[in-house]
């Protein structure tokens, strides 16, 4: 998990540097500031502007990739360890799943076993 976090932070840092360089290049080339650009957009406009930002797209995409790798790990582990985890998942007792030594064999842990069971 730490490796994924370090990779995420490195990608984010590189992406922000690239955008900073791109933004400064545009500002140096621009001679006049448009008065309409100085106005602050309304609240729905701010929200729309956030989702149009490339950094937000990059972060959301990276989160989705990390989550999909987690699901891939949970599903692939379910094929090999699903029978061993079946009794623990079917018990329906949340205390069994939240316990530290719950004897779940799924590589993604107890939450991965639950996701693989419900989505399979």
SSE blueprint and pairings:
Layout: H1 2-29, H2 35-38, H3 43-52, H4 54-90, H5 94-98, H6 109-119
Tell me about this structure.
It is a single chain. The model has no long low-confidence stretch (mean pLDDT 76). It is built from 6 helices and no strands. The longest helix has 37 residues, at 54-90. With 120 residues, it is mostly helical.
Number of strands: 0
For the largest beta-sheet, the strand count, sense and barrel status come to: none
Supply the number of helical segments. Answer: 6
Mean pLDDT: 76
Q: What general form does the structure show?
A: elongated
Q: State the distance separating the first and last CA atoms.
A: 24 Å
Radius of gyration: 23 Å
The helix-strand sequence is: HHHHHH
Instruction: List segments where confidence is low: pLDDT < 50 over at least 5 consecutive residues.
Output: none
């Amino acid at each position: 998990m730490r490796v994924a976090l370090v990779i995420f932070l490195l990608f984010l840092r590189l992406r922000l540097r690239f955008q900073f360089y791109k933004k400064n290049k545009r500002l140096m080339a621009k001679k006049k500031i448009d008065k309409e650009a100085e106005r602050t957009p309304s609240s729905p406009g701010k929200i729309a502007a956030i989702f149009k930002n490339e950094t937000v797209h990059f972060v959301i995409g990276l989160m989705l990739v990390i989550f999909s790798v987690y699901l891939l790990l949970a599903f692939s582990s379910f094929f090999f360890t699903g029978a061993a985890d079946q009794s623990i998942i079917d018990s329906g007792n949340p205390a069994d799943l939240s316990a530290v030594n719950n004897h779940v064999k799924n590589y993604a842990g107890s939450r991965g076993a639950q996701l693989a069971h419900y989505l399979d």
